[in-house]
Design a protein that fits this description.
The chain has helices spanning 6-28, 44-59, 77-86, 96-99, 118-125, 128-136, 166-169, 180-188, 201-206, 217-222, 248-253, 256-290, 300-309, 312-319, 322-331; strands at residues 31-36, 64-69, 91-94, 142-144, 149-158, 173-176, 192-195, 212-215, 231-247, 294-297. It has 336 residues and is α/β, with parallel strands linked by helices. The protein is globular, with a radius of gyration of 22 Å.
Length: 336
């Protein structure tokens, strides 16, 4: 016989209204989809995602209900990429360089020191370069939206010493996302790159598995990496963003009018998110300094010179397609 206490009965009864609301909402929606990403709940990316999901639900008359899973709740980046390709996950935000593990040319926007500012970035990614990358996505069962979301220019941090020139990074054990281009970039600079998913980064820095890492200031702040890193060099060695991709089969299940609502609102959210990330990444230095980080300017030409001397660009010209390299030449700002 099962004994149920009065406290348990009251608790169960109290939870019923919320359960009923969630169940009712899911039952009312014709299309219930999941949206996964790896950034913290409070990051501007998830603030924008929460807002756009509400807009889509309202504008679709409740027919489309997208459930958000931030902060790697559905697994690490490798897991979520596999899920979105299989259809177990319908929407996923990922770096172009993560996507390059499936579509090599998708990584072309992450070529070291390719862009010097946002004007150059948006000219390329909202132009032919972005269009070209999206055209390759259906071959791996994905559909890309026309506006890429922003992550920011990435900078190198360390716990042992300031990094101001390419010579300072030589021999440094640095965490990078698990992609060939990131690994190649830092090997060419003389560092010792270690591929780890973001969910493993804080612990790896805390236990000194790696000496440093590289990320935009917003990720350094929201991921609390300042607790385990002391120095930050403004290398701006790579711009990085998030392609919002959908599983192709699940996307095609949506009627045309629902696709229009979802795509239009996601592109609007991308524009709003870009603005917030741009403001944030230019205002965080003071906040991070108050938390103990020491910022140093970086000698960017020394890094570029080292990459050229070690044939980094020559190697990747051979890896990318002729069309991708043509777009690098057209939109990029590095002298090759």
């Amino acid at each position: 016989m099962i004994n149920i206490t009065r406290r348990q009965l009251v608790t169960a009864a109290a939870s019923l209204p919320l359960f009923n609301i969630l169940t009712s909402r899911a039952n009312a929606a014709e299309f219930v989809y999941k949206f996964g990403n790896n950034v913290p709940e409070t990051h501007p990316t998830n603030v924008a995602a929460k807002t756009v999901i509400e807009r889509i639900r309202e504008e679709s008359g409740g027919r489309v209900d997208i459930q958000r899973f931030p902060n790697s709740q559905l697994g690490n980046d490798t897991d979520m990429l596999s899920q979105v390709r299989s259809g177990a996950l319908e929407f996923y935000l990922l770096s172009p360089l993560r996507l390059s593990n499936l579509i090599p040319d998708a990584g072309v926007s992450g070529l070291g020191f390719l862009f010097s500012d946002y004007t150059a970035v948006w000219r390329a990614l909202d132009g032919e370069l972005g269009t070209y990358v999206r055209s390759l996505m259906p071959s791996v069962q994905l559909v890309g939206f026309s506006k890429i979301w922003d992550n920011g220019f990435r900078h190198v941090t360390s716990n042992s010493k300031p990094i101001t020139t390419a010579a300072d990074i030589k021999g440094m054990k640095i965490r990078v996302p698990s992609t060939r281009l990131w690994t190649s970039l830092f090997k060419s600079l003389g560092a010792v790159p270690t591929g780890l998913d973001f969910a493993e980064l804080y612990t790896a820095l805390q236990t000194r598995i790696v000496d440093g890492q590289e990320n935009p200031l917003s990720i350094i702040s929201f991921g609390k990496l300042y607790e385990v890193q002391k120095y930050c060099a403004f290398t701006g060695h790579m711009w990085d963003g998030f392609w919002l991709v959908a599983n192709k089969t699940q996307w095609e299940r949506l009627p045309a009018e629902m696709q229009d609502i979802v795509a239009r609102n996601f592109d609007l959210a991308a524009a709003e998110q870009r603005k917030e990330i741009g403001i944030l990444n230019t205002s965080l230095q003071d906040e991070l300094e108050k938390k103990g980080m020491v910022f140093k300017p970086a000698d960017r030409p020394s890094f570029q010179k080292t990459l050229i001397e070690n044939d980094f660009y020559k190697e990747w010209q051979e890896q990318f397609s002729e069309q991708a390299w043509k777009l690098v030449q057209e939109y990029g700002e590095v002298s090759l």
